[in-house]
Amino acid sequence: MNRFSRRGLLQAAALGTAGIAAALSGCTRRPTMPVPTPATPVTTDTPFARRRVLVAYFSRAGENYHYGGRRNLTVGNTEVVAGMIRDRTAADLYKIEPVDRYPDAYDATVARNTAEQDANALPAIAAALPDIRPYDVVILGSPVWSNRAPRIMSTFIDAVDLGGKTVLPLVTYAVSGMSGIDDFYRRALSTSTVERGLAVQGEEVADSGDAIDTWLRSHTLIN
């Protein structure tokens, strides 16, 4: 600190606190640093929390194939799996519903699907399409019909812009597994990143939790 004369200090004292501060302005002192605000902790153990996920799925209830026979479902197999994924990832769900509803009867649905596939039809979707922009990952779910995705899935991917998105195929099936559907999406979605899909046998959806967990974990959507 610089030395001040006794007289200078007395004069400063007479001026009060402001005078003392002015008199000491020649003192050497460290600048006052602002107290840093603690950073918000970043959670690294929930990668899915940083990736918004949409499950867009088509599912059909009614009469379904079941180990060579038939059974009636109040909720379609693909819809069951979509709900299980939502429960694990907090994903949003969008159900793809046709304007012209498919028959409840299994054989009638098979006949209609055959006609649609032969004609490369694009069945109309009933509800407004979702806004895809906020999502990083889009899971496309459907049954496998005659070794292909139902044609309404083509309607959907033609109508929304999945460019730049990570796309994960999901199918429920009777006998044919994924049946090349992941390759179909890779060809159709050339500007998307189509990664390994999941195939769940329709009769086994209630017991598919472990397979779903393993698949979601492999894509870092759950821990």
From TrEMBL:
Keywords: Signal. PROSITE patterns: PROKAR_LIPOPROTEIN, TAT. The keyword Signal applies. Residues 1-23 form the signal peptide. It holds the Pfam family Flavodoxin_4. It comes from the Bacteria. The keyword Signal applies. GO terms for molecular function: FMN binding. Residues 75-201 form the Flavodoxin-like domain. This is Flavodoxin-like domain-containing protein.
